[in-house]
TrEMBL record:
Keyword terms of this UniProt record: Membrane, Transmembrane, Transmembrane helix
Biased composition (Basic and acidic residues): 11-22
CC terms in the record's Gene Ontology section: membrane
Recorded superkingdom: Eukaryota
A matching Pfam family: PIG-P
Organism: Oryza rufipogon (Brownbeard rice)
Region ranges (Disordered): 1-36
Subcellular location(s) per record: Membrane
Topology in the lipid bilayer: Multi-pass membrane protein
Residues in PIG-P domain copies: 72-194
Chain segments annotated as transmembrane: 74-93, 113-136
Protein name: PIG-P domain-containing protein
Primary location: membrane
Amino acid sequence: MCKQSRLIDTQVKKEKERKGDMEEWSPPSSPSLVVRSPRQTVSLLRNRHPWRESRSPPTSTSTSLAGGPKLSEVYGFVGSITTVIATTVYLVWAYMPERCLRSLGITYYPSRYWALAVPSFVIVATALCMVVYVGFNFLATPPPTSFNTIFDEYSRERTMFDPANANATGEEEEVERPIEPISDISIDQINSLMRDFCGS
């Protein structure tokens, strides 16, 4: 009995000391922890939040649900489960015989015609979109006889670098040649290059 009372007395004393330490607060000895201005107070309050340690606000992908998985993981999981369920329902609707569906109590469902019609429509629409896209590109391209294939209002003529003007001092030292700006190759240069290529 005495041992138990001594144990209880020591626990009570430790609890009183702990409460006394909490009541008798003294300023921190470290000067970096002393708040000297309202701006420092705000910055210390901001640094108390765990998500602010990375100096970036939480986003929908980094926010977690009460310490659980990220929202992006939840959306991915729900999306994959939904896809599996939708595929299973589609295959059961498309391939299971009618008497089996009625024995399961499923009496209302769309006509089986749509099980083949919808995928066929999607495939044909995709192919037609590709053909129409290429057709619009052909319509937007000028004919080969048009001068717009050679130059138009967006053409940039080549500017030639003149070392005589650059070296106005008359010295014979090497002049640094700048990188030429982006420009279009003129038709006469293309013709001469093609003539040289075909002649060799």
